[in-house]
């Protein structure tokens, strides 16, 4: 089931009375859970959304979502944008759909065309993957005959890092998120893809040794922009954690006065590969 | 003190580019033609429109650069993220069609400019198309930027041309600060065209995407403001000199013109051979600059929509959609100019109309996204600035609406 097919679906009570249409879907990112669970639906208008917990949903029909007979609707007199989400919750339409993501396995930046949801053995709906291909875009634009000619480009949820502000923060809070699991060379590629503000936030959640390994594995300009952007004491600790020859080289590099106020070494919002075909090297 | 000044200049030099290129490429052959007709048919009286356009350019180009630096995304990418694929697809379709049409105008400018110097279009247009493609396909970001900024120096030709025409500086100053309202349909057309040619949709899309490609940071924005202001003011200054050159010669002698190459030819007997030649050189340079930037702006926008990486530093294999789009836009535009009997005038008029129609939703999207705290954080547009942006949009709507009414009733 695709997110864009659920969005806009009619939500009806057990007696058939309409409650509204699906505006957004809330997913919770939990410790050790590589495929987040759908926890709530946001239905109704933008000004008075209604939150429905997953326990209140009876079934997903072809053209509607049917609630249980005793469903309790929680009316929230706020804009969807101001919904009070828990720290581990995401809004899939607002924070994921059509936003940029880093495809960790492909080391590339892509845009989410759709989110694939499926019902697992425990009867819970979960996020399986995101589609970053143009086929889903064409499908959403009602060009199915063109969309059919293009293959799906699915990336498993556990292989992506979100770059939308809330998505980025929520993922970093989940210590099992992709950036916490990947080896140094791939971590270096991720840091290179992220803008500096986001990259520094990632660096701040990792232990010093892992950051040092990633900087050694990555391109020197990425390492330099990061080390020049973190507090001096943090940069010193990272360099101290490197093996002696690398540490020596980085100390002398950081001691040099940056050209043009460090502009060249503060290459931000960059996911540049510095002319390389692939892989990471110094 | 000296050291600090050197560092500030260094930082400024490092961020210069988006504002300068986006601004100066607005002075393309279509722009020069509009300014020439403004001066040749109405003298100095509508110079205030140019001043107003320059202010609008500073406002919206600054916003575009800021949005690019803060979000790391171009306007089409942001429209898709905030409003979905349908609105973004609609804007992109209109933008691509308008950009291809405008690129045709740039190659028409190259053809006309070449013919002023006896070079037939079958030679000048393919050479220009291959040249700009080679520059983008083979050059790194910094090389492309340096060459384009170097090419911008050709605009000095218009300033020299304007001075050689010995204008009435008093009348020019009065026209610049004392507004005269347009009363005829032709005057409304030219006033709207002046606003429309300065504040172009492709320029707005370009400056934001280019700021992303240049990797500007929010910390760079105070210097970037200088770049944007300098680019916009230079655009206005060049437009001013084109208007005064034509007002001082063609308007005084009651000589009508149809396009910028007409103006160059007509200037020779009135302001001297050098003035006419300089005008022609300026036309070719302006056309080349815009013919490089328009396909670039289109490529950035297409890639933002389909969701693939795009940057001048990427190789062809890394960014195929980016380079294929660039090549296609350039090739289609060059071919249209080379096809004998192609309905060029109809294409150019339709393009101008489409650009005018597209400008309004694009400006509204920009302000809407610019005030979005979720995306812009503490860099979002303040309430005071929203009033100013809204007033500017209202003026653009008024101009385009007046033109529409004048055209319908005519």
The percent range for strand residues of chain A is 15-25%
Described by strand count, sense and barrel closure, the largest sheet of chain A is:
8 strands, mixed
Q: Based on Cα principal axes, name the global outline of chain A.
A: elongated
Gyration radius over CA of chain A: 22 Å
Q: Oligomeric state of the chains?
A: heterodimer
Shape of chain B: globular
Overall tally of structural domains of chain B: 1
Pair of chains with the largest interface and how many residues each contributes: A-B, 37 and 35 residues
Text of the CATH class of chain B: Mainly Alpha
Q: Give the SSE string of chain B.
A: HHHHHHHHHHHHHHHHHHH
Largest sheet of chain B: none
User: Which radius of gyration of chain B do the C-alpha atoms yield?
Assistant: 20 Å
CATH topology of chain B: Amino acid/polyamine transporter I
User: Low-confidence spans of chain B: pLDDT under 50, at least 5 residues?
Assistant: none
What structural class do you assign from the helix and strand content of chain B? mainly alpha
Please report the number of helical segments of chain A: 12
Supply the CATH superfamily name of chain B.
Amino acid/polyamine transporter I
């Amino acid at each position: 089931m695709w997110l864009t097919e659920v969005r806009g679906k009619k939500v009806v009570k057990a007696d058939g009375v309409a409650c509204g249409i699906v505006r957004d879907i809330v997913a919770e990112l939990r410790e050790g859970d590589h495929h987040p669970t759908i926890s709530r639906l946001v239905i109704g208008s933008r000004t008075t959304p209604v939150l429905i917990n997953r326990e209140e949903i009876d079934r997903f029909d072809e053209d509607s979502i049917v609630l249980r007979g005793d469903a309790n609707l929680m009316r929230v007199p706020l804009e969807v944008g101001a919904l009070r989400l828990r720290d581990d919750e995401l809004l899939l339409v607002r924070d994921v759909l059509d936003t940029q993501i880093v495809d960790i396995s492909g080391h590339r930046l892509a845009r989410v065309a759709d989110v694939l949801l499926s019902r697992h053995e425990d009867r819970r709906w979960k996020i399986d993957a995101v589609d970053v291909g143009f086929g889903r875009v064409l499908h959403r634009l009602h060009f199915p005959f063109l969309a059919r000619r293009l293959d799906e480009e699915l990336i498993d949820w556990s292989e992506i890092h979100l770059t939308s502000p809330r998505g980025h923060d929520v993922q970093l809070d989940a210590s099992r998120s992709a950036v916490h699991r990947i080896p140094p060379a791939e971590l270096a590629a991720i840091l290179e893809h992220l803008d500096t503000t986001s990259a520094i936030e990632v660096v701040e959640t990792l232990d010093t040794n892992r950051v040092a390994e990633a900087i050694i594995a990555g391109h020197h300009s990425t390492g330099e922009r990061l080390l020049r952007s973190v507090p001096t004491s943090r940069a010193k600790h990272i360099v101290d954690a490197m093996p002696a020859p690398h540490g020596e080289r980085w100390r002398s590099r950081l001691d040099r006065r940056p050209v043009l106020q460090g502009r060249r070494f503060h290459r931000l919002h960059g996911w540049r590969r510095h002319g390389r075909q692939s892989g990471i090297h110094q | 003190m000296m050291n600090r000044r050197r560092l500030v200049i260094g930082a400024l030099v490092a961020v210069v580019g988006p504002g300068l290129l986006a601004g100066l490429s607005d002075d393309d052959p279509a722009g020069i033609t509009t300014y020439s007709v403004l001066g040749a048919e109405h003298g100095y009286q509508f110079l205030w429109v140019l001043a107003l356009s320059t202010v609008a350019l500073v406002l919206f180009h600054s916003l575009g650069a800021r949005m690019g630096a803060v979000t790391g995304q171009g306007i089409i990418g942001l429209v898709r993220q905030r409003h979905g694929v349908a609105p973004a697809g609609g804007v992109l379709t209109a933008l691509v069609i308008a950009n291809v049409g405008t690129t045709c105008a740039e190659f028409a400018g190259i053809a006309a400019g070449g013919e002023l110097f006896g070079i037939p279009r079958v030679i000048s247009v393919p050479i220009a198309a291959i040249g700009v493609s080679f520059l983008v396909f083979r050059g790194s970001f910094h090389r492309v930027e340096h060459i384009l900024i170097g090419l911008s120096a050709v605009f000095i030709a218009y300033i020299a041309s304007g001075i050689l025409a010995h204008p009435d500086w008093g009348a020019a100053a009065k026209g610049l600060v004392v507004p005269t309202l347009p009363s005829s349909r032709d005057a409304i057309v030219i006033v709207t065209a002046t606003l429309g040619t300065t504040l172009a949709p492709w320029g707005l899309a370009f400056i934001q995407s280019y700021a992303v490609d240049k990797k500007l940071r929010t910390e760079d924005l105070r210097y970037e403001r200088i770049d944007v202001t300098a680019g916009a003011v230079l655009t206005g200054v060049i437009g001013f000199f084109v208007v005064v050159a034509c007002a001082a010669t063609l308007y005084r002698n009651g000589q009508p013109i149809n396009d910028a190459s007409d103006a160059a030819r007509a200037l020779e007997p009135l302001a001297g051979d050098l003035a006419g030649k300089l005008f022609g050189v300026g036309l070719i340079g302006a056309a080349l600059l815009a013919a490089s930037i328009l396909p670039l702006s289109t490529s950035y926008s297409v890639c933002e929509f389909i969701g693939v990486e795009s940057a001048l530093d990427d190789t062809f294999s890394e960014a195929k959609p980016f380079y294929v789009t660039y090549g296609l836009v350039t090739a289609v535009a060059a071919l249209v100019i080379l096809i004998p009997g192609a309905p060029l005038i109809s294409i150019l008029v339709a393009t101008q109309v489409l650009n005018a129609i597209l400008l309004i939703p694009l400006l509204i999207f920009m302000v809407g996204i610019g005030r979005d705290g979720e995306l812009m954080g503490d860099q979002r547009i303040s309430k005071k600035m929203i009033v100013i942006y809204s007033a500017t949009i209202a003026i653009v709507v008024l101009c385009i609406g007046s033109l529409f009414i004048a055209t319908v009733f005519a």
